[in-house]
Amino acid sequence: MKKLLTSLLLAISMQAFSQAFTPYYKYRVYLTDKKQSEFSIRHPEQFLSQKAIERRNRQGIKIDETDIPVCATYVNQIRDMGVKIAHTSKWNNTVVVSCTDTTVMSRIAQLPFVSGTRRVAHYTKPTTQPGDERKNNQVKEFSLSPGSTYGRLAYEQISQLNGIALHGAGFKGEGMTVAIIDGGFLNVDVIKGFQNTKILGTKDFVDPTENFYATGSHGMMVLSCLGANIPNYMVGTAPEASYWLIMSEDGASEQLIEEDNWSAAIEFADSVGVDVINTSLGYYDFDNKADNLGHESLDGHTHICSHSASMVASKGMILCCSAGNSGDDPWKKITAPADAFDVLTVGAVNPSGTRVSFSSQGNTADGRIKPDVMAIGLPSAVYEPDGDISYSAGTSFSSPILCGMVTCLWQSLPHLNAYQIIDIVRKSGNRADKPDELYGYGIPDFFKAYTIGLTY
Prior knowledge:
Blueprint (H helix, E strand, L loop, with lengths): L1 H19 L3 E8 L18 H9 L13 H8 L4 E6 L4 E6 L3 H7 L4 E10 L31 H5 L3 H6 L8 E6 L15 E7 L13 H10 L1 E2 L3 E2 L6 E6 L9 H15 L4 E4 L24 H6 L8 E5 L21 E6 L23 E4 L3 E4 L5 E4 L2 H18 L5 H10 L18 H8 L3
Parallel strand pairs: 5-9, 5-10, 6-9, 10-11, 11-12, 12-13
Antiparallel strand pairs: 1-3, 1-4, 2-3, 7-8, 14-15
């Protein structure tokens, strides 16, 4: 009877919550300028961390208008029209707003500093249910495997990249800051396998009110590929780096807003001084099919997330991006933002070095080589939500595996800029002499990349 009563009360509570929900929309608002900004490029310390400024200075990068935040005066006037501000993008000079009455958008479009608007999301039901959604608090203890520093399952994915040699030379990511832009970091705060992982902070661009560590395990699995640091259990490819965990992916739907979330996330990573970024996300097929674009959109600029990604190297950072898992699907091609300029788009191979069929193909619409490089994506060793290690598959994991080695490589060659590191990673690939749309420049040899970099 007690169990029946509990179930009944829960059902009533959920029904009431559902009935109380009001459908709402999100729109992207394009601004014309930053003329009324209270910030100046002469005082970057007001909007960039000292580490972000030092990164730019080290690489000879000038701070420009794209670094200046969106004009607060404009944002306040938009808010005064009766909408909520979700977030902004200074690189794209856009504002994302939330509203229940779409007629307000026509009035916002008439503001003198607004050049256009676009609907990017429509929510007809709650994105999350009320209460704590943590799926599994029963985190297991781990047992060590003496004699296998990287762990029995994870050894091969770093060995294939000749990363063990780079680690052996003393470069494991210490002093480097990595951002992971993903969709959920379930149990990262309680999994014992992360007890030695240096996490600097978190940021949620989907729903800042939810428990950050309670929903979605994809980002957690990605983090384990780089940041696991338990010798004789699992050691990732950048075990001594420091990490920012950033959520941009809404697992409940697939809407254009996620590209805006992603763009805001990468700007946040820049502002806090991140060096290297991994994103194992990609977009081409949306719930609203009218938002879908064809292969011609893969030009590095059409998708707003690709436009932002194409700016990353110019800010002194390196982006590693999964190519996508569409190789066996009718789409076949890479997904945005993997089409961006000056990023490392990562496809998937097996331990023998053969491309896995699901790994998305290139090239970009304008003929640039994609993917750039390859790493193990089947099978990839990852943490499970209970802390166990298992195998998973996807370019979602080949990208962070490679990203960790990029981090260590840059630690070893601090005199090089982002473009130069990207260049030597490509040059160290086993297909660098004849890159193609399936393997790109091939599987990098990171110790070879290190020796190449010493000659720069």
